[in-house]
Amino acid sequence: MQEEPDRDNNPKQPERRPKSVTSMTINWLGFGVTAWVWLWCMNNGVSLFRIAVATIAVFILVVVMLETLFLRTPYRSSTGIDWSLWRSPDYSRVAIKTLGFYVTLGLIALAYWVISQYHNAFFANFRKAIEIFVPCLLLAQIPYFLLVDRFMREPEDAYFVIGRFVLGWRENVDSLIVKQHFLGWLVKAFFLPLMFADYINLLGATRFSAVGFIQFFDWAYNAIFTVDLLLVTVGYVFTLKLFDSHIRSTEPTMLGWVVAIICYPPFWGSIYSNVLPYDPAVSWGAWIRNGDIDPVTVFGIAMGTNWQTICWGSGILICGLVYVWASLAFGLRFSNLTNRGILTNGPYRFTKHPAYVFKNISWWMIAVPFVAHAGIENAVRECLMLLTVNFIYFMRARTEERHLSHDPAYVEYALYMNRRSIFAPVAVLLPFLRYRRPRLIPGFALKL
Asked: Do both 410 and 327 map to the same domain?
């Protein structure tokens, strides 16, 4: 397959920013109501588990209602649902789909039972949530399938194919449909336990008790990432065609998967400890907290002085706020390794991959590996290690773009950002940063 031609000079390329799949106004309203519930629960001694469940549920309910009312998401063509069809219920097909659904969940449950890390105390709250909500899911799925099946343009979906296969009807199996189905569920099965458990663990650190800038910094940093974990957990919990929050496609390449999952436990801990320990023993935080360490001058800035400490720490928090703003832009649709609709709002108005960009900037500000605490040689070594981490995220961005480029909406957005991104001047100096539609993945098709 030949590489797609560069369309940067095509006069038909978009002059306006393409429409986003989500609404920032709706997402902000959803977060505002959720934050109020969060604060009320914290002030009234509600358990962390119940706070987590309540905030996830409230955000979903508010955003679903507002999107249905103002964006009419159930009526989008991308759902695969046509409300004008109105077929009679096909109970046998729904039964086969139900079997496929139960087989899918059964395989995931088996994996959780076999893999020892899911028996650790860290995942205790996730196991508790499974015991409470999976029985509800198994019951709610039946009326949901009965409703949606009547209006689907292609009702013989992946669940139907898997159910037929289990029953012994193994002819005409579309391997791409089955592969995409299980890859989508693998994304959910891997990330949901991590995000939900981390969310509850960080909730307790969001009680405000700041008495100075350092205490405020610690509280704000924890609060930012707690909000982020709330939003990403919502994305993994709520994937429904009915509300256009389903997975449209999942990253099909091994490279895309590897560069993504190595950034998360249990893989990242081993990589950081044994391969890329870029964060030195004396980082930005250590300068401030340890009185026996003298202030250090970097590029003429005495980092140990008070006002400069506030400026530097505020810069880290600003990077974190942009990062969580990027997560809020997803609304109900956050998920690694998947396409659930193209975002062009929030920070995505100004640059592609804002979460990756500002997360990586914050790491340089936190770790400050360029300060020669143990000599120039060690500083260069630590900088190279952090550059390697930055390269991993660069590859995540590249593999995501290759996957998303199967969606014409993303191609339109990326070409638009070649001219309008805040980093467009940088791309003039570094042309490899400009988007060019990549060679598409052979045999992979995206149904929208």
From this structure: yes
